[in-house]
Design brief:
The protein has helices spanning about 5-15, 20-35, 40-45, 45-60, 70-85. With about 100 residues, the chain is mainly alpha-helical. The chain is globular, with a radius of gyration of 13 Å. The termini are far apart.
Length: about 100
């Protein structure tokens, strides 16, 4: 997989942001992915789905359909940082188990 479409790299790039910054950055990232030329969109399809599931989780606080254990571990990484900052309730972690 191209480093350009590596979900862990994306999570690492946003994990120190505030909750609102994460939402805004993820939204903007999804918009960029949607504007890719069709061939490139096809290459980035799985990555785009992972980013979309992450945004759903962050907005709804619910486990998205199709999410993998690996993705959940990355969500937890972000949630733990937000909990440390007092921007998220630690009860969200039970959603990730």
């Amino acid at each position: 997989m191209s480093q350009k479409y590596d979900f862990k790299s994306f999570i690492d790039s946003i994990e120190d942001m505030s909750y609102l910054e994460i939402i805004a950055a993820t939204d903007k990232h999804i918009e960029m992915l949607e504007r890719l030329p069709k061939k490139e969109r096809n290459i980035a399809y799985g990555y785009s789905r992972r980013v979309g599931r992450f945004l759903f989780f962050m907005r709804q606080g619910m486990r998205p359909t199709g999410v993998t254990q690996y993705e959940l571990s990355l969500y937890k990484q972000v949630c733990e940082r937000l909990i440390e900052k007092g921007e998220m309730n630690k009860g969200i972690l039970s959603t990730l188990e």
